[in-house]
Amino acid sequence: MIPNLLFLEGNYAGIVYLILLILLGPPILIAIIGLILFFTNYRKIGKILLILSGVYLVVGLGICGAMLMGF
């Protein structure tokens, strides 16, 4: 029975990186698109995307941060 328990232990660093990618990936992508649009003729859409990326980051830090901390 004890040798079978060795397969249950593992390195969970990959799941932490995946959660961080989900946490930080979309806001960074939306912010880059927003900055590109902001410096072209689409200033209003760029501002909206920058605000949305900030809101996404704050909400993501709250939810994923709480998940990572174990609350």
Give a verbal description of the structure.
The protein has one domain. Helix content is 80%, strand content 0%. The chain has three helices and no strands. It has helices at residues 2-5, 13-38, 43-69. Helix 2 (13-38) packs antiparallel against helix 3 (43-69). It is elongated and about 55 Å long. The mean pLDDT is 83.
Relevant terms:
single chain, 71 residues, mainly alpha, 80% helix, elongated, transmembrane, transmembrane helix
Q: Beta fraction of the residues? A: under 5%
Helix percentage range: over 70%
Characterize the largest beta sheet: strand count, sense, and whether it forms a barrel.
none
Q: What is the average per-residue confidence, as pLDDT, rounded to a whole number?
A: 83
Topology summary:
Elements: H1 2-5, H2 13-38, H3 43-69
Helix pairs in contact: 2-3
Provide a quick synopsis of the model:
The protein has helices spanning 2-5, 13-38, 43-69. With 71 residues, it is an all-alpha fold.
